[in-house]
Amino acid sequence: MRDKMKCSVSAAMALAFTILFAAFSNPTVALAQDDDHPGFRTANRTPGCTNETATGTYGYRMTGIIVGVGPFLVNGVYTHKPDGTMTVDVQLILGNQSFPASGSNGTFKTNSDCTGSGKFAMPALNLEVTYNFIATDGGDQIELLNTNPGVVLHGISRRISKPRGTPSCHNGMILGTYGYRLDGSLPGFANVAAAGTLTHKLDHAYNAVGTLTGADTFSFMGQYASRSFQGVFKLESNCRGTASYSDSLGNRINYVFTVVNDGDTIFLQGADPGTAISGIAQRLR
Question: Quick one: which of 20, 86, 152, 273 has the fewest CB in 10 Å?
Fold first, then answer.
């Protein structure tokens, strides 16, 4: 009886090893059987983008430098139109200067592999701005790289309105508390960073201006200071906003912001001359 059981177990093991060996010795068959697996289909899917993929109004931020000049920061919106034209509305930090700028007479082209390029005139810089991009997340996100000589500038954009639509933001979209981080430079400090929380409130639903409070820890070239602050904010219908506050260190700060992801994410940028600092705020869950 015991010998028969040993024989049965041995035979079963031999059969299992035979099947396993056959599968490994013929990988083509094994792979063919997995062709219909969702993960396999996704990994082998070929991109198929058109201009329509990257069309709409996008909120964006870019950070970098102009060689020999200094920091170069961008915060605002651009619109890729279905006819292949585009416009831009932003706040710029250029060296020690901060000023609004617009771009017009722009064009863009999206390739079938979801890469693309564009250009537009920016009179405030006396420059034709050129850029490359990659449309990701079905066109809801676009990775950006400036391609003008002497400029090192890159960033990210998120779609805030669909093709042929218009942005429709309001103060109520950004009520609540956000966690945020900032980095860049300030007068007298070549490298700074901060992280903290920020809360937006409206005393009345019809108020045009809301209030903000917050607290963070700031690193000034590796020397740390904690602070609290309070101020006001206003968000326009184009999803761009302005804010100002006074902090416990005695500073008065102005900044601009752009709202994306239906208010869950805010792109932040200082607006005071010499304040080359920017970052991202994310709504707390």
Answer: 20
Task: Dump pLDDT digits (tens) for 41-59.
Answer: 455 667 789 999 999 999 9
Model confidence over 70-98: pLDDT tens digits?
999 999 999 999 999 999 999 999 999 99
51-161 CATH choice from 3.40.190.10, 2.40.160.40, 3.10.310.10, 2.40.128.120: 2.40.128.120
- Provide the CATH number for the domain formed by 171-283 in this structure: 2.40.128.20
Asked if the domains at 51-161 and 171-283 fall in one CATH topology, the answer is yes
What is the residue extent of each domain of the chain? 2-43, 51-161, 171-283
